[in-house]
Please model this.
Amino acid sequence: MRTSLVLLSVRLLDPASGGFLPQSALAVADGRIAALGDDRTIRELADAATTVIDLKGAVVTPGLVDGHLHPVTGAELTHGLDLSGCTDLPSVRAALAAEVEGLAPGAWLHAWGLDPNVFGDRPVAAAALAPVLDGVPALLQLFDAHSMLASPRALELAGVDGPRTFAQAAEVVCDADGRPTGLLLEDAACELVERAAPQPTRAERRTRLAAALRAMAANGLTGGHAMDAGGDSLDLYAELDEAGELPLRLRVAPWCQPGVDREGLRALVELQGRGGELWRVNGVKLFMDGTIDNGTAWLERPDCHGESTHAFWPDPAHYTRVVEELHRAGVPTATHAIGDAAVRHALDAVAKATANSPADGTPTRPAPVRHRIEHIETVPDEAVRRFAELGVIASMQPTHCCDFTRADHTDNWSRRLGEERADRAWRCRDLWDAGATVVLGSDWPIAPYPPLGVMAGARHRRPSRDLDQPPHNPGQALTALEALRAMTVNAAFAAGEEQLAGRIAVGHRADLTVLATDPLTTPATELAAVPVLLTVLDGRPTHRADRLS
Model:
């Protein structure tokens, strides 16, 4: 055994065991944890080629994994003006005006992170941003990444001058006279205008992706469940992997869109297992609805505007058949389901698929197919119980609740739902107590990716910009240990890798996150600021704080 890395004077926090291990050092060989022991014993395993790091009492956890993120699209969408810090229309107008001043004539303005709450009671429309954007082709991505605002000039260049019909739930929002307001709902509508804008070169996209992934590693992430694989994203992962520049272990789930035929499904099945050393296609991502904020979720009852009444799939029964076929092929699904009707239908589809599985009851039954539902923003009690009964993973993003809703329910999301459904917001606690496997993530670029911030949000449920604000539904908070488990042990289970990852144990992957202080005793409101001293992926450091050099 050739030891490549030795970590000394550490506190080994194994969430699967519920706390700290008695050993104070570990050794790594061939990308795995090879030995645990005291400092002297482990130091003796090192030779001249071994990297030895004395961590002086720092805390080592299994590598933190984001259960839901979009690396490639995120790297592209977050290029431009960041509007996420704007809290009202004047601040948005001021930020846009400053950006316009630096634009070359005819250049497009790209912005992201626009919060619909800045419009208050006004419609989300480009007219609210005139005259700042007059004559400027601009695309402003709303924070949910399911909608955007296009300026009049951008609509003109794209040839969008009225309503359009789509094969999925999407809309070019128009006024009473049939003129576009600038609001575009869901990908099919957004792409009409996006195609008219200049596109980045492949080299630019690769550079942005690599930079985003390095920043994730510097914040303690060793892995992520990537919920898309559009365009050439798999090729980009492969290039970075082969060049030794991929700092995260990625599990990729390509999209399956409404209208998919048998050939399309066969292609998705055949794509499973494609990958390299640090990335692999494993699963398929589907959408059952859109978002509550833009009125495209699927609710049991309409929202206050009479919206969010339909599924993303024009024929929900087709979605059910697709889940059945993927299940029979052994392919796990991850379904975006935000509204209560969407969650219910996704659970029904899994129930039907597993009941009809030909493997059920056979003596050589294969490993279970672990299906997931993503987001789960509002659900009734009956749906909560079914997650555990069906073995469906609950993949949740607590910082969406923290940063885009308010405890007094005056935000857009809560107003649309009304008090009853807003009180069922992000039921992490109830799902955990019901026996469901809860996985936490950011949904970056929708919310920031630093994992300590995600775990903190699951605990304090307060706006990260103002932690003095009251928490939203504090009874749904997780404990410190539960939040850590949700980004280590449970993430590994969701990926079917519990025998390889998510623990500090001999034989497990040496994917490790090293923190300056104990995340279990650090107050939730202080956790996001804890320094990440070292990030280790497959036994090699991908981030090392200056203080360790």
In short: The mean pLDDT is 94.
